[in-house]
Amino acid sequence: MTGHRGPWPAEWRWAGQLAMAAAVSQNLDDLRAVQAGAAPRVLAFEPDQPTLTLGRRAHGASARAQIGATLELAAARGWPVLDVDRGGLATLHLPGQVVLLLALPVAATQLRQLVRDLLQAAADTAASSGTSAELRADTDAGLWLGPAKLASIGLCHRGGVASHGMALNAAIDTGYGGGLTLCGHSNAQLASLYPHRGGDPDRVAQVAQALCARLGFLRQPQE
């Protein structure tokens, strides 16, 4: 399976396990740096604990009614909940997931292509592991295995730079999805490229490497 246009010129760095709050803060710093003329950059990492992020659509009364039970479950389980300025509603980030947070100069007319390229690269990465996923770039944007979601995407475009990004389930515990409304789907189901075995950082890092290579990102030299 091929078709993404890349490469997107950017350096990427692997941060290993990282708290979502710290990663989102770093993404904002990267966004501001790129807006000021710095080279494009991508932060790749694995969330260190289950964390719920809420996009811009999560704050109206109807949206809160839709995800209210999900917020209650998150609170009961002690999960951090973060407001972020990407599109969309609620997304669950988990250990075993590869998250890419971008700071890429992109014209507004290129955003749709960037979304398709990100998802196509994820689909190609899944195919290389023997998993054939359905790519959707409409209101259900993401990668799907039947009713279960394998990859989620959400971007923000500000000052000519795209930020936030995509999450691909590399080796997650798929049991977390039960009873939650995620990406607008009640009782969401989650899929994973590989079984969760209580933590497999090398596997997650390998998936990150493959995903970034397919997008044409260059690995940032180690300091």
Report a brief summary of the structure.
It contains four helices and twelve strands, in the order E-H-E-E-H-E-E-E-H-E-E-E-E-E-H-E.
Written description of the protein model:
The structure is a single chain. With 223 residues, the chain is α/β, with parallel strands linked by helices. The chain has one domain: 2-Layer Sandwich (BirA Bifunctional Protein, domain 2). It has helices at 20-35, 61-77, 111-128, 201-214, and strands spanning 11-18, 41-47, 51-54, 81-83, 90-93, 97-105, 134-136, 142-145, 148-158, 161-169, 189-190, 218-219. The strands form 2 sheets. Strands 1, 2, 6, 7, 8, 9, 10, 11 and 12 form a 9-stranded mixed beta sheet that branches. The chain has a 3-stranded mixed beta sheet with strand order 4-3-5, with helices on one face. Strand 9 (148-158) and strand 10 form a beta hairpin. Helix 3 (111-128) crosses helix 4. The protein is globular. The relative contact order is 0.21. The model has no long low-confidence stretch (mean pLDDT 88).
